[in-house]
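In the laboratory, one determines a bound structure by crystallizing the protein with its ligand and collecting diffraction data. In a computational setting the workflow is compressed into a single prediction: the sequence and the ligand go in, and a structural description comes out. We illustrate the idea with 3-thiaglutaryl-CoA.
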Amino acid sequence: MKPDLFEAPDYYLLDELLTEEHKLVRDAARSWVKRDVSPIIEGYAQRAEFPRQIIGGLAEIGAFGPYIPAEYGGAGLDQISYGLIMQEIERGDSGVRSTASVQSSLVMYPIYAYGDEAQRKKYLPKLASGELMGCFGLTEPDHGSNPSGMVTNFRDKGDHFLLNGAKLWISNAPFADIAVVWAKNEEGRIHGLIVERGMEGFSTPETHNKWSLRASATGELIFDNVKVPKENLLPGKSGLGAPLGCLDSARYGIAWGAIGAAMDCYDTALRYSKERIQFDKPIGATQLQQKKLAEMVTEITKAQLLAFRLGQLKNEGRATTAQISMAKRNNVEMALNIAREARQVLGGMGITGEYPIMRHMMNLESVVTYEGTHDIHLLITGADITGFNAFK
Ligand code: TGC
Ligand code: FAD
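The predicted complex, in structure-token form:
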């Protein structure tokens, strides 16, 4: 792969809206991605392997629990810093950002928000340092967009719970030490349980043959009469709103992350357009290529403004689920469109692993589907503005 010469577009001088802390956090993540992710990520994606050696670096830049308080090992940062970290990591690769999103928003967040003090103390510091890695089991083979229909269940056996069922498409599953699993009790009420690797009857087979997110490990969670200690139930919240609350946080991170992937594609295409000569002039001097590049930077700028304002609302505790859906949907589609256009600017070179564009494009096909599909987010906006729920 070519050396990483990335320069971030900032057409509307958004850096002026960031605090010194935001810029320090962002720049540390940016430098780490250039040094430790860019040089190796193409090879790992080609081999469909997760680069485990980056776990320590992710922890060091504060990517595991950016907004979790420092007393539990988190970085104690605000939501804009969290977003900027996700942006920089996804600039490197969406799969690496997935690992960080899952660890932070889908494992640490539910333990922090719904767990008791003993659970927080037991798990959060080790998750923040990367000593423990986690995954989040909501999706099932027959229940993806509609998780309320889940069949995974647990039964009270007096001194423990007995867990049965299966989860599919679970990021980090093949190597995770713990899983936050959503399952129904005897009354059909959804609860979160912390399942630990090594519990008898718990297995995590890897999902192969992915053309997308190849540097992220995806797998199943199988529960065959797993005895889960009662103290592993998250006591603070139950019902579908509990896992959906975690998704709010992860989807917010993705709204920022997608900007990173888009910026990398735009920056690569812009540089290539100035260097590639056809018909005796740089292709960047032709109107058609300029149209592509001008539209890309316009869309990136709009997405940056959307994410920044959402971050302000999130910092104030005022961001709604529907606002988060709009940003996730818009920014991922924006990134996917930019990846497709940028790929064309590079002509044949665009399909090779010499440049990051094709990898970003393939990754974004997962990002547009997970954490709520593109259409599901449209329906969330539709329900919010009309008051009519069109899901059912
Ligand atoms: P609905 O009736 O709308 O809601 C059920 C209950 O939940 C409450 N609620 C929320 N609470 C907190 N936060 C939210 N965001 C909430 N949204 C809804 C709601 O008020 C209600 O509470 P109550 O007390 O009245 O019961 O639920 P529904 O069954 O109609 O479903 C709505 C729908 C379709 C929007 C929801 O199911 C959905 O979002 N589906 C998409 C599923 C999804 O996104 N799955 C993601 C799996 S995790 C993943 O993909 C990780 S990839 C990570 C990576 O690698 O980066
Ligand atoms: P389906 O729900 O079957 O949807 C198929 C199509 O039907 C979609 O286009 C959808 O928009 C559409 N559709 C569904 N319902 C409606 C409706 N009411 N109206 C109109 N259209 C509709 N899940 C986890 O729990 N944890 C993870 O860590 C995780 N990681 C993932 C990693 C990867 C790489 C991938 C691909 C997925 C991951 N997922 C994870 C699962 C992901 O959240 C689901 O794939 C997603 O929610 C969609 O579910 P589904 O694939 O079953 O599609």
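The first strand starts at residue 134 and ends at 137. Keep in mind that any predicted model is a hypothesis to be tested, not a measurement.
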